[in-house]
Amino acid sequence: MSRSKHILNAQVSIRAPCCKQWFDCAECHEETQDHRLKRTVEMAFICKKCKKAFRKDMSNYEESDEYCPHCDNHYVIEAKTPQPVVGVEGDDARIDSRMLKDERMRVDHRRSLFDFSDCLD
């Protein structure tokens, strides 16, 4: 049972009736298995909040069935999916500026009696 990369806020894991393995979403099953997901009327879930398993009859599904029977976690919610973002990886430059390149010229502070480059102008 691993965290889904397709649905970021999955509240339950679902047991696939075909291979008896746990998945957060149908896409995770499709990516890792060599067979199609079998449909079933009775589904087995594990709540990610209380870690307890429960079954639901999908032919007689009501609004009250959207909650875990053990801890009342609302597991039927709008899915958050990963969105592509263009940005720079790293910490906030206002706090830690080590990732920024300093384009200024460095001044050579080493002076010598034999350095006449300043006097030639």
The low-pLDDT segments are none
Query: Quaternary state, please?
Result: single chain
| Main sheet: strand order | 2-1-3-4
Overall, the morphology is: elongated
Which structural category fits the helices and strands?
A: mainly beta
| Beta-strand percentage range | 5-15%
How helix-rich are the residues, as a percent range? Answer: under 10%
| Annotation field: number of helices | 1
- Please state the CA-atom Rg, rounded to the nearest Å: 29 Å
Q: State the distance separating the first and last CA atoms.
A: 75 Å
| SS elements, strand count | 4
Order of helices and strands: EEHEE
Q: What characterizes the major β-sheet?
A: 4 strands, antiparallel
Q: What is the residue-averaged pLDDT?
A: 80
SSE blueprint and pairings:
Layout: E1 12-15, E2 22-23, H1 26-32, E3 42-47, E4 53-57
Antiparallel strand pairs: 1-2, 1-3, 3-4
